[in-house]
């Protein structure tokens, strides 16, 4: 077999130039320190074009790296191989992604989730904001277009010169710079996007069927090579949607089969209702009961704008300066409608169960003495995220053998509402006509049946509402100075210092109306406001959608119109608008980190030549947490099972903490043969806690539960980072210049994980009417059962109206009395389950990766394939009802990519698969309960045709097989949600100048 010699150490720079400059994270070899953007390094002008050239450049990057590195190089300037950077990253072994609305958003590397992977832009730490995850550190790749990206580098092992924060990996996103490709390069492109998921939402929610994408890039350098400018810009519009069915608030329980908890558990054998249970859970079994069920349709419109401007100036050959400005804006508008019901866990239920120690029902049905509500919900969400970064870089070759670099930037990320209604808003309407209500979990789609429902004689009317306004801003100010000094013939010394100031501010306010029994009378709402749609048509890809027992209709309405009608009927506009003034909660966390590193690299001319890099990084971080929160002032029983908290006043906290980390790093690579390498790496890395784990300030849940009490949370600013001791081994065989086979093993021993601790306590001297004198009278003299909270409320409102704390306002649509019952000072204190955090957990993760890249001679055909196995002895125990610590996102993954390319055509078919994984350890109701995401596989196809050397055409399909997603709870059968979206088709044209 033909082999290809490994390039001499001093010539590795040429290979890395082909790969395209490895930023400030690039490997530092003796005599051949890899180029930093704008460092003035001059190599042969190599233009990367085509899939095969991109694959070869990627191999060069991996082969010449210090440590274990993977990457993806653009096929050509302005032509990255995927439309989304996260979707590109998933092709790399060990990398899997989380999708949002069918698009890659965040990455997991080697079993470590998004919060433990550091994302850099040109070697700089970037801020990130995400209103769906106000307190996370994970970078949202959906904010960045791919057109301006020259390459992605995934550093899986630590190095002393790498910024900290990535235990799974450090991902460096590199943009195009003019000196990397001297001369004039320009291209413009346009695409038409047809997202079929937009067809699967109600007509009144749909956007335009076809949307545009436009991009352009211009790069030029002066003839003397002293000046360079690059400008890239893109605009993308996408209309899409997804439909989801499931139990948004999870399951009640789990309960022990032998337990007797009034109002919550199944009746015991011989008790009333026990005859309606088929295959009753065993006495020692754990079982869960559905809490609610809903069907939602979601229409999404997105507009994404990206731009980058870069100037480079080389006044003398030894000095290169770069100034760059990056801007991105991502605007998302979501309109949603939902049909949902709640279960009361009545003793009149009928259910059937599978066998097992941990079970959920196959079928479940409840009968009510009075009509219950059918919720018809509409949501209007609109958010805007802006990212800005201004940076300066200077590289000076002070003298032969000494290179000095300085880099600084100021970057911001800001997310907030893009609507007069706030960032996230819902109107809940209801028809009080539900009788017997049943659920069937034996199909892929849970089947909700309500045979007695009558929305004509019990028309839809306004009920509760909530208007949320969230805001988040993150700022990173960073300066780095570094130097590389050549020593003797084959060694060099690298050293540097850095300072990073990161701040993250998040605010939140809520205007909520707890009028769940009806805001006003039904006659205020004409039937014409609500449009009937066939429910099954939105879930036609899911098994069971054609069941004759499925409730037939999903109602949609225009949010703005119904909001205005409701506000007019109630006579209070402010109650149906967000609070844009003083937020309820305002938190700021600032981290200031000072760092220094030293590393010594050398080549060893032994029988088996090898290269070593040994280094040490020291960091000191100061943390300051400032929080303003809203104290609770009263507990008001306003509906059947809910106890809304009344808030007032303000409370503040200010907490400081600090920690120091010493992080060694050792990287070795052995040239076993001219075409074969063996690598070994050991060292320590850290991953910083999430902002919500660090931020102080006690926050109460807005609504407590009659049976389970309230919830609260508070962070711990003194938390230390997770520290991981890492061992990595790799074997790499470069048996052809475009082909590779590699095996890798990794082991991570992690300490200081922040574990949740749950404390039950009373807060703010809040008293609950549950268990008070009125309540006990309803149980005693009124003869109400503990489980029958409607009976208890009716008794209190009827017999104690006008007494302290009791106000009756009328009769609800379901026939029960309406009004409020406020906790008195003589009533019991409300107990809150308060969550906080402490460094108390440890975990080990190990795994293996196999990677193959092969080109079939000069045929134009090639294949890439990889598989990653990840294992941790720490498993979530589904039979344990207590809070548990487990690693989220841990899953095996695989990729297979087939390619064909000649002078005219390029074809790529990619299959990505991710095994099932634990997504969360608490459900939406903040109960200790696992959420698992099922295994998922997706096929993507891209085809390109070169009409001539300047003009080319592209066609792409994302999710060709129309894959659906599903999540479940403690058992495979306990469906939490199933989601249907659709394939996305794109056709485009690109012209190179």
Automatic annotation (TrEMBL):
Domain TonB-dependent receptor-like beta-barrel: 461-960
TonB-dependent receptor plug domain mapped to chain residues: 62-163
A Pfam family that the UniProt record links to this protein: TonB_dep_Rec_b-barrel
Leader sequence residues: 1-30
InterPro entries: Beta-barrel_TonB, Beta-barrel_TonB_sf, Plug_dom, Plug_dom_sf, TonB_rcpt_bac
Superkingdom of source: Bacteria
Alphabetic keyword roster: Cell outer membrane, Membrane, Receptor, Signal, TonB box
Main location: membrane
CC annotations in GO: cell outer membrane
Localization: Cell outer membrane
Family of this protein: Belongs to the TonB-dependent receptor family.
Descriptive protein name: TonB-dependent receptor
Source species of the chain: Duganella guangzhouensis
């Amino acid at each position: 077999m033909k082999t290809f010699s490994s390039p001499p150490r001093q010539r590795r720079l040429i290979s890395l130039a082909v790969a395209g400059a490895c930023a400030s994270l690039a490997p530092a070899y003796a005599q051949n320190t890899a180029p930093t953007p704008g460092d003035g390094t001059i190599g042969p002008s190599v233009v990367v074009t085509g899939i095969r050239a991109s694959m070869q450049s990627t191999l060069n990057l991996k082969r010449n790296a210090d440590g274990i590195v993977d990457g993806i190089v653009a096929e050509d300037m302005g032509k990255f191989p995927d439309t989304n950077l996260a979707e590109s990253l998933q092709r790399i072994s060990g990398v899997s992604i989380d999708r949002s609305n069918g698009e890659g958003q965040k990455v997991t590397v080697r079993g470590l989730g998004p919060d433990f992977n550091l994302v850099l832009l040109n070697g700089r730490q970037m801020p990130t904001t995400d209103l769906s995850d106000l307190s996370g550190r994970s970078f949202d790749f959906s904010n960045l277009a791919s057109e301006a990206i020259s390459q992605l580098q995934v550093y899986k092992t630590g190095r002393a010169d790498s910024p900290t924060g990535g235990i799974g990996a450090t991902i460096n996103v590199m943009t195009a710079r003019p000196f990397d490709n001297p001369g004039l390069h320009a291209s413009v492109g346009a695409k038409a996007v047809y997202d079929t998921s937009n067809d699967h939402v109600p007509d009144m929610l749909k956007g335009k069927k076809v949307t545009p994408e436009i991009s352009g890039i211009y790069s030029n350098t002066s003839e003397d090579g002293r000046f360079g400018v690059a400008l890239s810009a893109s605009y993308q519009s996408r209309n899409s949607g997804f439909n989801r069915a499931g139990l948004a608030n999870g399951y009640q329980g789990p309960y022990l089969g032998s337990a007797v908890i009034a109002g919550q558990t199944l009746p015991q054998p011989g008790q009333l209702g026990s005859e309606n249970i088929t295959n009753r859970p065993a006495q020692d079994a754990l079982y869960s009961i559905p809490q609610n069920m809903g069907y939602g349709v979601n229409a999404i419109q997105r507009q994404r704008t990206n731009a980058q401007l870069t100037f480079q100036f080389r006044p003398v050959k030894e000095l290169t300066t770069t100034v760059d400005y990056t801007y991105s804006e991502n605007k998302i508008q979501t309109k949603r409608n939902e049909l949902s019901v709640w279960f009361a866990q009545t003793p009149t239920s009928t259910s059937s169960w599978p066998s097992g120690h941990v079970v959920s029902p196959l079928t479940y049905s409840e009968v009510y003495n009075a009509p219950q509500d059918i919720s018809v919900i509409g949501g209007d969400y609109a958010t805007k995220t802006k990212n800005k970064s201004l940076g300066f870089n200077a590289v000076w070759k002070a003298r032969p053998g000494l290179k000095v670099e300085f880099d600084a930037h100021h970057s911001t990320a800001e997310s907030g509402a893009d609507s007069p209604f706030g960032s996230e808003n819902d109107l809940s309407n209801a028809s009080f006509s539900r009788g017997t209500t049943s659920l069937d979990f034996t199909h892929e789609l849970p089947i909700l049946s309500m045979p007695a429902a009558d929305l004509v004689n019990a028309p839809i009317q306004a009920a509760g509402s909530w208007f949320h306004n969230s805001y988040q801003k993150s700022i990173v100010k960073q300066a780095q100075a570094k130097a590389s000094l050549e020593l003797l013939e084959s060694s060099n010394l690298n050293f540097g210092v850095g300072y990073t100031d990161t701040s993250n501010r998040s605010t939140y306010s809520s205007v909520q109306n707890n009028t769940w029994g009806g805001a006003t009378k039904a006659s205020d709402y004409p039937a014409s406001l609500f449009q009937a749609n066939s429910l099954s048509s939105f879930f036609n890809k899911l098994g069971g959608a054609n069941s004759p027992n499925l409730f037939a209709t999903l109602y949609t309405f225009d949010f703005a119109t119904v909001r205005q009608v409701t506000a007019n009927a109630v006579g209070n506009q402010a109650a149906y608008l967000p609070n844009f003034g003083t937020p309820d909660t305002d938190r700021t966390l600032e981290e200031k980190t000072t760092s220094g590193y030293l590393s010594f690299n050398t080549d060893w001319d032994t029988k088996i030549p090898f290269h070593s890099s040994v280094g040490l990084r020291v960091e000191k971080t100061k943390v300051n947490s400032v929080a303003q929160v809203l104290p609770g002032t009263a507990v008001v029983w306003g509906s059947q099972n809910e106890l809304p908290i009344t808030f007032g006043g303000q409370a503040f906290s200010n907490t400081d903490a600090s920690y120091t980390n010493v992080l060694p790093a050792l990287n070795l690579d052995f040239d076993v043969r001219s075409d074969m390498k063996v690598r070994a790496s050991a060292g320590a890395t850290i991953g910083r806690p999430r902002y919500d784990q660090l931020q102080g300030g006690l926050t109460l849940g807005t609504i407590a539960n009659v049976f389970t009490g309230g919830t609260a949370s508070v962070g711990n600013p003194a938390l230390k980072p997770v520290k991981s001791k890492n061992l990595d081994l790799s074997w790499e065989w470069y048996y052809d210049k475009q082909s590779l086979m590699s095996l890798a093993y990794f082991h991570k021993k992690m300490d200081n994980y922040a574990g949740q601790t749950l404390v039950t306590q009373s807060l703010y001297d809040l008293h609950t009417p549950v268990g008070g004198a009125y309540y006990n009278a309803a149980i005693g003299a009124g003869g109400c059962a503990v489980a029958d909270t409607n009976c208890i409320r009716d008794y209190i409102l009827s017999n104690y109206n006008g007494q302290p704390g009791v106000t009756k306002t009328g009769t609800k649509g379901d026939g029960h009395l309406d009004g409020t019952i406020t906790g008195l000072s003589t009533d019991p204190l409300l107990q809150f389950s308060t969550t906080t955090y402490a460094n108390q957990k440890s975990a080990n993760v190990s795994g293996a990766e196999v990677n193959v890249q092969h080109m079939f001679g000069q045929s134009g055909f090639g294949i890439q394939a990889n598989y990653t196995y990840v294992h941790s002895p720490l498993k979530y125990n589904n039979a344990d009802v207590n809070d548990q610590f487990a690693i989220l996102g841990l899953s095996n993954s695989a990729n297979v990519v087939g390619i064909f390319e000649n002078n005219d055509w390029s074809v790529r078919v990619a299959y990505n698969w991710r095994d099932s994984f634990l997504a969360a350890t608490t459900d939406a109701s903040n109960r200790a309960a696992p959420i698992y995401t099922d295994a998922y596989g997706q096929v993507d196809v891209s085809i390109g045709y070169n009409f001539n050397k300047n003009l080319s055409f592209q066609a792409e399909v994302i999710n060709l097989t129309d894959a659906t997603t599903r999540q479940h709870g403690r058992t495979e059968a306990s469906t939490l949600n199933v989601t249907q979206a659709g394939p996305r088709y794109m056709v485009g044209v690109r012209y190179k100048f």
